[in-house]
Amino acid sequence: MNKLKIKTLLYLLILLVTALSVSYIYVSYKYIKESTLESLNTKSINRAYKVTKQLSALNDKMAWEYNKYDNEILESLKYAQDYFTKFGKNASLEELKIQLDSTSDTIFYHVYIINDDYIIKNTTFAPDMNLDFHIIPEALKVLQKAYNNPKYIDISSATNDAVTNNYKKYILQKADNKNFLVQLSVSIKKERNINTFIDDMHKIIPNLISADIHLIFLKDKSNLNIDVLDSKKYKEGTKNYNLIKQNLFNNFKNIAKTDKTIDIKNFNKYIVNLSKNEGYKDTYFYRDSKYIHQIIMPFYSYLNNQEDTVYVISIEFDESEAEKIIKNMEIITTITYIVFFILTSLFLYIISSRIIKPIEKLQLSMKTKKIIDTKALLNHNDEINSMSLIYNQLLQDLRTEISSNEDLLEEFKNFTANTIHQIRTPISVIKIALEMVETTNKEAILQIQSSLISVEHMYDSLSYALHHNSVNFSKENLNLSKLLEERVKLFSTIARAHDSDIIYEIEENINIFMNKTEAEYLIDNNLSNAIKYGVISKKAYVRLNSISSGIALSFDSFGDKIKDTDIIFTRFHRGDKSRKGNGIGLHMVASICSHNNILIDVAYNDGKNNFTYLFESS
């Protein structure tokens, strides 16, 4: 597996830090936003509970206040009955109201005449004129009971009038020997009503927009009756029951968009369940450029327990300021992202220009062994600048040292070449002189001839090693069979001097295309190694023959197995350090084989090391 570069690692680290930072900013934004919304939501819910709690307290207080006037209201009903008995059905209601109001300094009355069709045909309270009680089933049942039982008197609990928002208490009885009902409503003067209550709530809760209050009769759940206590449409005088019912549903429209449990067809049942569970529903929406939080919840009071009813209040809070906070958070988050992106880009630019690019230029200069351009790189006083200056100085020193060594090497080459050239003449003289010597000591002559051949081989090796990189050794059609036989016969003298011999098996007329000097070097080095490293008194074997894939030249000699068959071809390596040698012979052989496409195979069989060279057919 390739190791990652520092550049890649650095960019990956920056990418990781960027990803973590972006994620942290996003998560923080989401957390703060949700916490803010949750806090605002909780605050609004608590305010809604506060409103309902105080409204319940107001209802309970009004119920207790109005109960104190029950006896007085009964006396007023008797007075009204006498009034209508005396003056008839068409008597002035306003006159009766004036007379009733004059009896008390704390309460005032309204008078209603309800015919046998249960419609208000005459009243001192104009908004209720012609009200048909058939649209209010719960009230209709009470009217029917009173009409059918003349002695029955119905006194209601204190309730809130949807038009005036004043609390009222009703008393009802059938007129004596008449076919209509007499109803009185009584209200306490200067009482605290729903209007003043809402005004007070606006002072306590500045962002309160509205609080629509609905009264629900729960006795007949199949025909749920919903009465709107605080509604603009109701105050305009609309008495259509369906419209009153729809008005409550309108309050649920925005919630219905998010709450799929609201079934329009079973809306009444939904309201009853909500009332029973004493929970609440809320939602957020826009209206008239305001961000509104609407909360709908039921609440109860003493009045509800008496009448088996429940109030449902729809409260709206203006959360536009809260929305501004959220939007400001979004803007701040966006700006944070932009600033972070700019800072990251700037950081990447600085890292790239001050670290990555200088390192790459430094690396390139080191690879190409060039002096670093001071104008392009060394313009900052930092660690890379110091390292670059040190590199330039080291490279200058190295070049100076190399130049000096090259001069010394050239002088050494010239000295070696001159020495080798001068050695050639004494070798030739010794060979001629040896032929002229007459002696009966043939062993001595053999030793001298062996030594002379060895010196001549060393001369040829040094000469080839000195010139093989500078002289072009041209190739020619070469009779390898003849050349090999000549070299074997030459080295046989050396072998006999070592109490050994060379056994050869050479196929005739095998030709190759190769330089003669290189071929001689390859053969001589292998013969020399076979004699030098082979077991004394053991024969060496040479074989040349054609094979299906080309030409095979092999050398076998007895000896220990070569441990590493690859390292022996490296420069200055000697397999047996106890034997003389310079360690460059097989390295030169490998070099010759490389540029002549000769394959080398080294093996060990039957106690012999085998070197086989495979030539291409010429």
Task: Give an account of the 3D structure.
This protein is an alpha+beta fold and 618 residues long. Among the domains are: 68-188, Beta-Lactamase (2-Layer Sandwich), CATH 3.30.450.20; 468-615, Heat Shock Protein 90 (2-Layer Sandwich). It contains 15 helices and 18 strands. It has helices spanning 6-67, 70-87, 93-101, 137-148, 194-204, 232-235, 241-258, 267-277, 302-307, 320-368, 383-436, 442-467, 480-497, 516-533, 585-595, and strands at 107-114, 120-123, 154-155, 159-160, 167-174, 181-188, 208-217, 225-228, 281-287, 290-299, 309-318, 476-479, 502-506, 511-514, 540-547, 550-558, 599-605, 608-615. Strands 1, 2, 3, 4, 5 and 6 form a six-stranded antiparallel beta sheet that branches. Strands 8-7-11-10-9 form a five-stranded antiparallel beta sheet, with helices on both faces. A five-stranded mixed beta sheet has the order 13-15-16-18-17, with helices on one face. Helix 11 (383-436) packs antiparallel against helix 12 (442-467), helix 13 runs parallel beside helix 14 (516-533) and helix 14 (516-533) runs antiparallel to helix 15. The longest helix has 62 residues, at 6-67. The radius of gyration is 61 Å and the shape is rod-shaped.
